[in-house]
Amino acid sequence: MSLHQYRRKRRLGTAADGTPEPDDQPAQGDPDRRPGFVVQLHHASSRHYDFRLEMDGVLKSWAVPKGPSLRAGEKRLAVEVEDHPLSYATFEGDIPHGHYGAGHVDVFDHGTWASEGDPLPALAAGKLDFVLHGERLSGGWKLVRTALKGRQPQWLLIKRDDAQARDAEADDLLRDPPAEAGGGSTRPSAAKGRPAGRATRTRKADSRWRKRALLLDGARAAPYPHQFAPQLTDHRDTAPEGAGWLHEIKWDGYRLLADLDDGQVKLRSRNGLDWSDDFPEVARAVAALPVSDARLDGELVVLHADGRSDFAALQRVIDGSSSQPLRYVVFDLPGVAGVDISRAPLLARKTLLKALLGSKPGTLAYSDHVIDHGPAVFSASGEAGFEGIISKQRDAAYVNVRARSWVKVKHEDTDEFLIVGHTPPKGSRQGFGSLLMAVQDKGGLRYVGRVGTGFDDAQLHALGSQLETLAVKQPVLELPAHVPFRASSVHWVEPVLVAEVAFRGLGKEGLLRQASFRRLRVDKMDGRVLSPKEKGGSAVSNAVTITHPERVVYPGRKIRKGDVADYYRAMARWILPEIAGRPLSLLRCPRGVGQACFFQKHHGQGLGDAVRSVPLKQKSGTEDYVFVDDVQGLLQLVQMNTLELHPWGATVQDPEHPDRLVFDLDPGEGVTWVQVKAAARDIRARLQEVGLQSFVRLSGGKGLHVVVPLQPKAGWDQAKAFCEAFAQALAQHAPDRYVATMSKARRTGVIFIDWLRNARGATSVCSWSLRARDSAGVAVPLRWEELGRIAAADAFPLDKALARARRLKRDPWEGIATLKQVLPLDL
After folding, report:
1. Whether the predicted pLDDT of 444 surpasses 80
2. How far is 23 from 493, CA to CA, in rounded Å?
3. What are the residue numbers of the active site?
4. Is residue 705 within 8 Å of residue 763, measured between CB atoms?
5. Closest alpha carbon to 658 in 725, 595, 600, 583
6. pTM check: above 0.85
């Protein structure tokens, strides 16, 4: 079904006789959050519950006459109805008499939901297993399509047998208030804020907690600062002894700081990134605490049943491929109820924190500890499979720097190193043999050894593909004379990937001993990797001076030139494979978005010494075109106020034979985002019919790009002819959906398939490039199975694009560089 049926059944609009229900325009959802659900109680001619799951940019909907049952295995009829727009998730009110569905509508429950993998194929197959995170409904459920005949498809909604199952049904829950503590979650767009009664209770609770906090030694009657910096750990080889220390598990996840201020929550990473929208269930759990003001420090993790945290599982949850619950394990409370308790003894802070979190299981969890017996605790943690412990002085204050009052003790040394190259695989091994690692010293990169173990087959394949895109011909550093292999046998790569490596100390030559790969640190790609001796210092990267970093470039979002430089520096590992060694057209905006911008494709003075030129023959003669090869060149373009990067579909080594084709889907007026996504899938299918695999990218503006990699064999004339014939064939086959001409007069209500970008000298914006638009949208590459969850072409502004890149375990376009396909000469 589609929103066409929703529109057909209703008189939408602002007319006096129209329905108050939301219109059918696609909502500008947040692609980084998990999809939402809503259950509405509908007092229509026949009272029923409407059960809606966000999927493919709409709310897939079922009418459940008796409402959901929480009894394990009990089946409830669910009649499939038309898709609803996402904005319907917050609709409450009266649908007037004489309108379709006339009657009163209340929101019964809302929150987020997840399934293992892509839900669309499961839905099409007639069996969808999923997990709800709501205020009244939670746990596992399934929808099963029946063979019953009816005017509309009929399903069964069944509660799974889990900890949330109980002897109750929806009508029973109407008598109970929604849950207020940490197990539920809801998407921010559907949140209604705290009820008046809850606000009154919170004010009373604030007074009680304030009195308790002020009793602590060192407490001050002033709020602890917002945006506080975290306390960082020192390192020891052995656990400290004595009753003056307490010992906690070292959790393997992401450090997370929470500011609760007047009931509003902001979540931040250790480096200050705003993660509030990334983890809405955590934000909701913090907001549900019995105070309106608090500062929390902890770790975001996924826990096994035995209590161990699993970093790989956490990454799967974050990238949307797992429905395991997140846990925010909190270990410190520097401020609460308007009182600064950072100077109070740690043990007193933790005692107050434990009472604040309560004992009810949920998204928030307390990080427990053991006092004294450090060596025994450390030994037991190793036997239980933990990475190590954090030992803390029980009377220490909370400070915003690295301090010896907190020490990290690990069962093996781990550190981050730059990958500078790899050796060839041997025997049956695929991908690569071992990785060459380096650190940044004062004199440049210094080799520290190899790591050849710790990889599974999937990692060998995925990392091998990434390394191929970063290959460089010249050695990145000088190898010591004592290494047991020759520099000529090394495959060198641009030093931008950071790997976490476990090792057993350093050998006499200063090289890693018994090194084993742990993981790529995609959250640490934007700074240089320091040598162990430099770990206390600040990190800097890519010595390009950015002048006037305070200049506002995106006024609507208050994004400055320095922010743009930071973005491109952090994203260099993703952008360089798209642009390195290709002629470029640059969109430069010296005065920012909204002011005069201009395209530049020719090389000129002032661009920087790392911005290179290549002479290319044109009708007017030979002209020097711009290209870059490295991070320094990229940042020099940013220094010259470049916002958008548009590469050729060919390289400077072979400019006459394209290796990329791009079909740009440009929607005309009246075309919905759902229609644009359907068009991209249609083009993908048609390309597959002629033997071509394709990849999809958000334009960052209004449309989508379908990208086809090729072996560079056909010339530009052949490529252009193929693309024109392909687009014309689509337009002739479906003239109500597509047009293949630039004439704006013919584009209302249809999608222009722009094939003209596949001519010599024409360009398309590259993946991960910013767009010079008020929204600061980014042209983000997607996996095809992700497309259904994306709500708009500019769904990833600068901060969201950074967050997405941080979560990626592998390239969404993995394999594009190695796919061997050629242009078919005949359609």
Report:
1. no
2. 52
3. 250
4. no
5. 583
6. no
